[in-house]
Amino acid sequence: MSTAELASSYAALILADDGAEITADKLQTLIKAAKVEDIEPIWTSLFAKALEGKDVKELLLNVGSGGGAAPAAGGAAAGGAADAGAAPAEEEKEEEKEESDDDMGFGLFD
C-alpha cells in the first residue's frame, strides 16, 4: 500500500472516530497536519467519494462477516424441521466427494 493510500486511510479513520463527515478537504487537512508530503488530492477525493454516506465504524465491525451467513441462518430459522432433514444429506454428499478424492490418490501433500 502506498503512502498516499495509508495517509488517506488513517485520516478517514480519524474523522470517523471523531464522528465528523469525511470530505476530501478534511482528509487533506489532516494529512498536511501530520506532515505527510506529496499526497495528491486525487487520493483524498477517491477516499471521500468511496466513504460518502457510509458508516466507517460499521464497515470495520463487519469486515469478517461474509454476506452469505445471514441469509442461511435466517432460512434455517424460518424453515424449521424441513431444513433440518436437508442438512445431513448435504453433509453426506460432501463427505463422499472427499473420500473419492482420496481413492484417486490425490491429496494435499502427495
From TrEMBL:
<dbReference type="GO" id="GO:0022625">
    <property type="term" value="C:cytosolic large ribosomal subunit"/>
</dbReference>
<comment type="function">
    <text>Plays an important role in the elongation step of protein synthesis.</text>
</comment>
<keyword id="KW-0687">Ribonucleoprotein</keyword>
<dbReference type="Pfam" id="PF00428">
    <property type="entry name" value="Ribosomal_60s"/>
</dbReference>
<protein>
    <recommendedName>
        <fullName>Large ribosomal subunit protein P1</fullName>
    </recommendedName>
</protein>
<comment type="similarity">
    <text>Belongs to the eukaryotic ribosomal protein P1/P2 family.</text>
</comment>
<dbReference type="GO" id="GO:0003735">
    <property type="term" value="F:structural constituent of ribosome"/>
</dbReference>
<dbReference type="InterPro" id="IPR038716">
    <property type="entry name" value="P1/P2_N_sf"/>
</dbReference>
<dbReference type="GO" id="GO:0030295">
    <property type="term" value="F:protein kinase activator activity"/>
</dbReference>
<keyword id="KW-0689">Ribosomal protein</keyword>
<dbReference type="GO" id="GO:0002181">
    <property type="term" value="P:cytoplasmic translation"/>
</dbReference>
<feature type="region of interest" description="Disordered">
    <location>
        <begin position="67"/>
        <end position="110"/>
    </location>
</feature>
<dbReference type="InterPro" id="IPR027534">
    <property type="entry name" value="Ribosomal_P1/P2"/>
</dbReference>
<dbReference type="GO" id="GO:0043021">
    <property type="term" value="F:ribonucleoprotein complex binding"/>
</dbReference>
<comment type="subunit">
    <text>P1 and P2 exist as dimers at the large ribosomal subunit.</text>
</comment>
<feature type="compositionally biased region" description="Low complexity">
    <location>
        <begin position="70"/>
        <end position="88"/>
    </location>
</feature>
<feature type="compositionally biased region" description="Acidic residues">
    <location>
        <begin position="89"/>
        <end position="104"/>
    </location>
</feature>
<dbReference type="GO" id="GO:0006414">
    <property type="term" value="P:translational elongation"/>
</dbReference>
